[in-house]
Amino acid sequence: MVGITAVTKLDSLVKGNKSTLMNSSVIFLTFSSEEIFQKIVFQCPCQKPQSTLYGASFLFVPALALFIVGILVNNVTWRLFTGCCYRTRSTHHGCRKGSVYLVKIIMQALVAPAAWIFIGFIDGRSA
């Protein structure tokens, strides 16, 4: 009986904090990827103009790729775009609701790139 109550409480906790858990897991995976990427790929040339360009590209190119992947992976993105093609009079919500969805998509997609850049600046080896 105690086990069922604990599972029920855990289930309600997970359902109530789904976005927080998702963002935490994305940040953890980004942190792990950044550490692996930095140990395997990043080799600073240690000359001023080259090191600045190399460090900036190490920070911002993967962040841009993570942002694009974050937008493409989001289910709401595809529902929003496919819904634009197959609208009827009853499903037309206007630009305001579409803009709200677009802002939500962008904010969710910015979690991984922000974590990547934040970790890169905190570490200090690539900047």
Automatic annotation (TrEMBL):
InterPro entries: CALHM. It is found in: Membrane. It is a multi-pass membrane protein. The chain crosses the membrane at residues 58-81, 101-122. Keywords: Ion channel, Ion transport, Membrane, Transmembrane, Transmembrane helix, Transport. Pfam families: Ca_hom_mod (PF14798). PANTHER family: CALCIUM HOMEOSTASIS MODULATOR PROTEIN (PTHR32261:SF1). Belongs to the CALHM family. This is Protein FAM26E-like. The gene is LOC106816036.
